Amino acid sequence: MIYREHIPPAPLSDFIESMYYLKGEMGFEEKMILPDFKTDLLFLFDTRLSGEGGISSSGSTGFVSGFRRNTLRFSYNGHVEMLGVRFMPYGFTQLFGISQQEISSLLQAGDVLHSSRYDEILERLFLQPDPGIKFGIIEAWLMKALMDATIESSLPVRAIHRITATKGILPLREICSHSESEYKQLQRFCHKEMDMAPKAFARMVRFEQLHRSIQSTGSPDWMSMVANFEFTDQSHLIREIRQFTGLPPRAFLRNIDTFI
How far apart are the first and last CA of the chain? Predict the structure, then answer.
């Protein structure tokens, strides 16, 4: 199996977390994407991908996996070749001017990006076998989108970025500089754009960071996790794991690589 990851340079890194490439022959695998308010743009090449909601595709195509309240389950089997772009929270909207409500599920990328040279980019990626050059094609396309975009930099958007940068741990009042006006703006923005409260978004961000930390350690010290991520106590941590995965901590640990 071939796996490559690429971190784009600034200024794209303000909007894109990473790009990744996977190719190989695999048996049946099922994965679950945790809710995190990040958007993934997936390019598939002669790959069969099945997802919830009856979505299935083979050949060369793409999907936009947008904001999710719940875990998204998908599977693949046999030959797999995919290139993905994981956007920072609200990054996809800022680059392409497409609201989060329009990408609140798994959608065909061509239906969403029909005016953004998508078909041309998909063909070029399909014809290019080298992962590094594929990354370069995507990076140039996204840089052009950035140059053409009108980037929103309102107080609520900056607050969303700060919540992400501080791993969902910093109190929201501090995120908003203890300003009641800024806090109310953030609340209105989150309810309108995300259909959730700022606190719920911060919980998503914190759990994503917890998941990464557990993956990197393999055998976590739960009490250290409680302290590092500022949970009230161990019971609070257990409730969050159950809320986001439907599993108790030991079962979550056994299946940690199923979640992405």
Answer: 18
